[in-house]
Hints:
single chain, Jelly Rolls, globular
Amino acid sequence: xxxKDTHHRLIQGSHVFERLNQAxxxxxxxxxxxxxxxxxxxxxxxxxxxxxxxxHHTLSVYLxxxxxxxxxxxxxxxxxxxxxxxxxxxxxxxxxxxxxGDLAFVHLYFSDQDLSQSIEQIWDKSASxxxxxxxxxxxxxxxxxxxxxxxxxxxxxxxxxxxxxxQLSQLLLGHITKHYLNKHLPEPAVNGGLAPYQLxxxxxxxxxxxxxxxxxxxxxxxxxxxxxxFARMFKQSxxxxxxxxxxxxxxERAKHLLLNGGLSLAEVAYQTGxxxxxxFSARFKQITGNSPASFxxxx
Length: 299
C-alpha cells in the first residue's frame, strides 16, 4: 500500500484523486506523466463518494470485485460493476457512487489538452468542440486488456518503465478519441516506417542513454514526429515498439557487464537504467529466462 501524501504530490489538481484521497479508498500506486495526465491504482470497500464537476476526465477500469458497486442517478441505482468493466467520467460531470463489498480499480486522469494533442497527432488536424461520453459499467476488451496485460506488469516508479507508461497512456488516449467522443473521426492514415537515417539516429541515442530516464516524447523529437506517429513508425521499421527495443538493449548491455565488468548486481542495474536491483533481476529473468546471478555463473 502506498503513502497517500507521497502519491498525492504526484498527481496535482485532480478532483477525483482528491475525493478518493479523502474517502476510505486505499491508494496503492500512482504516477504523473504530465500536467494532468497520470495513472492511479486504488481499492475500496463499503464506501460512499461523489464527484462534483471535476476539471479533468477520468477513465476507470475495474480490476476485481465491483459486483455490488452502484452509481446513483437521481433516485435510481445503476448496477453492473464487475472485473473488466470501465467507467468514463467527463470533466464537468457530477456523480455519486455506492461501493458495497470490495472493489479494486485503475484510474487514468487526463485533460482536454491531452485529448486535443492526441487528435492532432493521430489525425493531423486541429481539435475543437468535442465532448467525452459519460459511460458507466461499459465493456471494452481492448482497454481492459491494455490495463491487465501491460499496465499492471510495469513498475510505475522505475525510470526503466517510463517509456512504456508514456506509450500506454498515448494508446489509451488514442482509443478514447476514436471511440468515446461525440464527433466521429475517420480511421487514421497509415504511414510508412522511419527513414534509415531516422532509425539510426534513434538507436544511437538510445544506446548512448541506456542508463537514463527516456520518454517517448524525447525520442519523437529526434526525428520531428508526434509521439503517436513515432511509436507506430518505429515499430514498422524495427519490428518492435520503442519500449521493447529499449528493454532489449538494456538487457544486452547488462549481459555484457555481468560477464566482463566485474560489477555487483546493484551496479549493473544502475548502469542499465533500473532504479533497483530487484526490478532489474525480475526484468532480466522475464526476458532471458535466467536470473542475473545464474546467467553470470553459467557463462
